[in-house]
Amino acid sequence: MRDSRPQSIEKLFDETQSSGSLQQIQQRAVALNKLNKAVRALLPSQLHPWVRVANYRQGILVLEVANASWMMRLRYEQPALLSALRAQIIPSLTAIDISINPSLAGKAARVEQENRTPGSSGQKNMGCQLSSDSAAALRSVAERSPEKLKKILERLASLAGESGASKTSRDE
């Protein structure tokens, strides 16, 4: 059972004690991060953004995946991963538990999008650019729309001028 009584902040930050709470948490986080890197090295590259180590306790490695389809893909790799981890890193590993974490899907999708965008080298992806014809069509629809929608459509149409101007200034 955990000790849930209030503790002194000095005790949490005390580096002289080997049982300092924050020090234990940091060591655990570093160990899980190293384990995550080892697991990624053993998995096929297409699984890397969609899988991460969540925990390791009592001989069971807990992996998180983005969705059910990646879970099925990882299950095909599970026996080979289990034997490789036992042989190379964790001899006491008894099982691998896989769970779905939907928040991982958003992070992985952003990473994959950045990797696919040519010339993205750390720059923010501006997305699709609106043509002047599309902007004119949006302004036309905005004229016949309710006030709230009209403002939104006009703001969207104004983006065509900004992206077109920045594009021409770069091309010159």
Compact summary:
The protein has six helices and three strands.
Could you explain how this protein is built, in words?
It is a single chain. This protein is mostly helical and 172 residues long. The chain has 6 helices and 3 strands; from the N terminus they run ααββαβααα. The protein has helices spanning 9-13, 21-42, 68-88, 103-116, 132-143, 147-171; strands spanning 51-57, 60-65, 95-100. A 3-stranded mixed β-sheet has the order 1-2-3. Helix 5 (132-143) packs antiparallel against helix 6 (147-171). The longest helix is centred in the C-terminal third of the chain and has 25 residues, at 147-171. Residues 120-126 and 163-172 have low confidence and may be disordered.
Overall structural domain count: 2
Structural class: mainly alpha
Give the beta-strand count.
3
Mean pLDDT: 80
N- to C-terminal separation? Answer: 69 Å
**Could you name the CATH class of the largest domain?**
Alpha Beta
Measured by DSSP, the beta-strand proportion falls in 5-15%
Helical proportion?
55-70%
Strand order of the largest sheet: 1-2-3
CATH superfamily of the largest domain: DnaA, N-terminal domain
Helix/strand order, N-terminal first: HHEEHEHHH
Shape, per Cα inertia axes: elongated
List keywords for this structure.
single chain; 172 residues; mainly alpha; GMP Synthetase, Chain A, domain 3; 2 domains; three-stranded mixed beta sheet; 58% helix; 11% strand; elongated; disordered C terminus; DUF721 domain-containing protein; DciA-like
Question: How does the SSE layout of this entry go?
Answer:
Layout: H1 9-13, H2 21-42, E1 51-57, E2 60-65, H3 68-88, E3 95-100, H4 103-116, H5 132-143, H6 147-171
Parallel strand pairs: 2-3
Antiparallel strand pairs: 1-2
Protein name: DUF721 domain-containing protein
Pfam families: DciA
Region (Disordered): 109-132
